[in-house]
Write a structure and sequence with these properties.
- With 288 residues, the chain is an alpha/beta fold.
- It folds into two domains: 149 residues, Rossmann fold (3-Layer(aba) Sandwich); 118 residues, Nitrogenase molybdenum iron protein domain (Rossmann fold, 3-Layer(aba) Sandwich), CATH 3.40.50.1980.
- 36% of the residues lie in helices and 16% in strands.
- The strands form three sheets. Strands 1-7-6-4-5 form a five-stranded parallel beta sheet, with helices on both faces. Strands 9-8-10-11 form a four-stranded parallel beta sheet.
- The radius of gyration is 20 Å and the shape is globular.
- The termini are far apart.
- 41% of the residues are buried.
- Belongs to the bacterial solute-binding protein 8 family.
- One of its GO terms (biological process) is cellular response to iron ion.
- Keywords: Membrane, Signal, Transmembrane, Transmembrane helix.
- This is Fe/B12 periplasmic-binding domain-containing protein.
Length: 288
């Protein structure tokens, strides 16, 4: 069984728990079989971003399995592990989940394997910040936590609107985001991170590519001459950057416009991405 929605997926800890006593009837289609499900009670999250959202919805007690990469909130790391890069299908089946949450683009093979065993799947696939918001709403709906999900999205919208007001009228800066050093890799326009840069008042130079993670040559980087560099922590150190002669000619380097950012904050499609928008806006325009 698979219920598949296109949405975007980023965490807030709310003290509000939606009432779980009502029944959600949802027609889920898998292999030409339709089944009516009650609101699920045992969840397995196969992505750190989904784990964050489920915790934000107040569903920590219903989560019976997560991945080895699920590290936020910290208590998520104490949950039963069902895999890392690939999922442990045997372990997932043994946990008897009511619903298994996955991310389509990153887990196509796992999804196909789970389909063969008719596991109940809920798949999201965010490519924009709006998709992330929709993913939160979709997860809230399928788990019976719609009101909490709506509040999470409202909070995201309010914080983003605050940033937009503060940077209104300021000239956007050319930004090159480095998510991989060798080869030099950035993000394209079909990636929610492209939206993050835009909302923070930047122009993503990788946005000329349709690929979610395009590769660039250093010659191309020099030609674009970004005004600001944003680098995922752990990709390249500040010392390595300063000692690499290929970067020295860039305006961003000459003007000390280099930001090292937490990859979990920027690269996970969860409500926490708003923190990345605020941090980048402050870096580019001295505005939160």
């Amino acid at each position: 069984m698979e219920k598949k929605l296109n949405g975007r997926y980023p965490i807030f800890k709310y003290g509000v728990l939606a009432i779980l006593s009502f029944v959600l009837f949802s027609m889920v289609c898998f292999a030409n079989l339709e089944t009516t499900l009650e609101t699920p009670k045992r969840y397995i999250s196969c992505m750190p971003s989904i784990t964050e959202i489920l915790y934000g919805l107040g569903l920590e007690e219903q989560i019976v399995g997560v991945t080895t990469a699920c590290n936020f909130p910290p208590e998520a790391a104490k949950k039963e592990k069902v895999g890392g890069v690939t999922m442990n299908l045997e372990r997932i089946i043994a946990l008897k989940p009511d619903l298994v949450f996955l991310l389509e683009d990153a887990q196509k093979r796992d999804i196909e394997k789970m389909k063969k065993f008719k596991l109940p799947l809920f798949v999201i696939n965010p490519h924009s910040v709006d998709d992330v918001k929709q993913s939160v709403l979709d997860l809230g709906k399928v788990t019976g936590q719609e009101k909490v999900a709506e509040y999470m999205v409202k909070t995201m919208n309010d914080r983003i609107a605050k940033v937009e007001r503060k940077i209104r009228g300021k000239e956007k800066k050319k930004v090159f985001l480095i998510v991989g050093h060798r080869p030099l890799t950035t993000v394209g326009r079909n990636n929610f991170i492209n939206d993050i840069i835009d909302l923070a008042g930047g122009i993503n130079l990788g946005g000329t590519s349709r690929s979610p993670y395009p590769q660039f040559s250093f010659e191309q980087l020099v030609k674009y001459d970004p005004e600001a560099l944003i680098i995922l922590e752990g990709v390249i150190s500040k010392r390595e950057l300063e000692n690499d002669s290929r970067f020295k000619s860039l305006s961003a380097m000459r003007n000390n416009m280099v930001l090292f950012i937490n990859p979990d904050l920027l690269c996970r499609p969860t409500p926490r991405l708003v923190g990345a928008i605020e941090e980048i806006a402050l870096f580019l325009h001295n505005e939160k």
